[in-house]
Amino acid sequence: MNSAQRLLLSLLRRVMKPPPRMTPAEWAEKFRRMSTKESAFVGRFSFGLNPYFRWFLTELQRRDVTRGVCKKSAQVGWTQAVILNLLGWLIHIRKGTTIVMFPKAAAAQNFNLEKFEPMVEGTPELAAIIPTGRRNKDNKQLFKNFVGGFIKFVGSNSIADVKSTSARNLVIEEPDDCNLNLRGQGNAIALLEERGKSYRDAKLLIGGTPSIKGISAIDTEFERSSQHYWHVPCPDCDEFQVLVWDQVRWSKADSETDPLYGRHQPETARYCCAHCGSLWTNDQKNAAIRKGKPVAHAEFRGILGLALNELYSLMHNSRMSELVGKFVQAHQKLKAGDPGEMIVFHNATLGLSWEFKSRQSSPDDLRERGLDYPPMTVPRGGLVITAGVDVQHNRLAVVMRAWGRGEESWLVQWTEIDGNPLDLATHDADGTPRATVWDKLDTLLFSPIRHADGFYMQVSAVSIDAGDGTTSDAVYSWVRKQRYREGVRVMAVRGARSPIAEIFAKPKAPIDTDYRNTKSSKYGLRVYEVGVSKAKDLLIGAEGRITLTGFGPGRMHFTRHVRQDYCEQLLSERKVPKRQSSGQYAVNELVWQRLTGVRNEVLDCENYNLHAARALKLHTRTEAQWAQLEAELRQGGLFADPPAMTAPAPATRAIDDSPADEDEPVVSSFLE
To answer: Which stretches make up the Phage terminase large subunit GpA ATPase domain (predicted)?
Structure first.
């Protein structure tokens, strides 16, 4: 073998040499180099400032760990120590496909330019795999292709990005800020999780600061985990303990001595041992953290969890004196009526969710107010029936409600029809006839409904969700088929984005198929926007209809025989301060958010019912109009048998689905 052959063989061996077997933490300590572009600490990476993450990254690679969760404060080094080291290890050692999801696409771009690319440039082993100096099909801002895998950065606000690609490794940054209802198709976190289901060894990593209690996604994820905390030893008694804010102590002067802190003296801050009461300096606290150990506070079931607050940060700007200063200022503003900074302190410093006090009833309290009447029966006082339908990918959720004078209302039915709304096959493979979900919906909505006084009624208006984009065509097709059904008004709706949108409003302009190329236009339909924020205020707000008891105008009744989840789903959302991208809260801007782990189809359907009632202008009817309608219904009750279900029939003219004029009577009974 000549020298040229030996050189070629040497090069081949180097190229084909398998990467060393090591954990992400070991990789970071051996290969990662920090540059001035990404950190103030230049040179070889070290876990000296966050020893808990060395343990976390190592444990994350255990085969029995399918999910890693970190509920954290700011300033603990999560991005540098965990996310970037994990990505570097995946590129260099593990390979495979990876998706990293951020709340917004802009955050993904910033991460790439400010964190990821500087890491690659500063680490020779990565720079040889992903050249950052040029853009091409393999190296875009949000997509990095390399031999053996790729990394894709996405924003939770893009349904195409979240749903388009499958990957073995999934990472979610700041889940509390991610989109919880992505164009009506559900939680972006759950949608991303679906992207890994085709991999037997898929892993999901989630890290973020909590927000509002009951709404925080990271809270929910952590509660399902092993709930590890980093226990540290007391420098005096050696007893291990979790660092908590309640144990921080500082002195107060006899009089106001500081224009910013008043009597408080943040520079005197010490940590008080929960066992012996000794006071630790900041240096002693940091030394104890380096000697700490992880302790699980719950049973491990495949989800590794770690909780950290800023007391665990060894950064200079996270000294206890700095934290006390932030707390004092936040507390002063809280006493003055502004809770914004205290909420941020709880989230970003303590790593805890803020408990926003709500006057809303609890599901148990509401359930006790149920009336004793059978479902699919209209109680006395109900004279008009509406229906709200929420369309899911595997079922239809339906709430039917009867209305009377002063918009007093009674629940008639809450049910779900299982089946794929896109499956329109009317026969099985063997030729056996079968009903689609739309056939079953027809039967439910348009069959006669018995009134408590013996006569029969029919649904007068239906508002059905057409907002998710996937099932819209099926909804439009069904709505169009109902256009000529006598005595009932059927409307395709979607939730309005604006918080000040009216509950019911006429569409701004009819869709003309000659000049409007929209999904609904080819069906000749107009889609109504429902002011869901105002609807929720009216129904379940602090002074909403569910707070009214007894009987009379505006009361919202339901049967105690309704399905158990009705009350929970009706109260599935809270109005809380809006969290901005900066982490601050707009305390004067409250927005409705869904509680984690609670379905909200009932609330959606009730919003649509209110929309249908407003479309019929029930809130403007006079006593004379109600009396006339009641007399007509009772007269119709002379029939011994209920009429058969009506079917849509061809008509000589199209039905105008615009709102009725103020002086135009709207007939709600098919017994006219």
So the answer is: 39-293
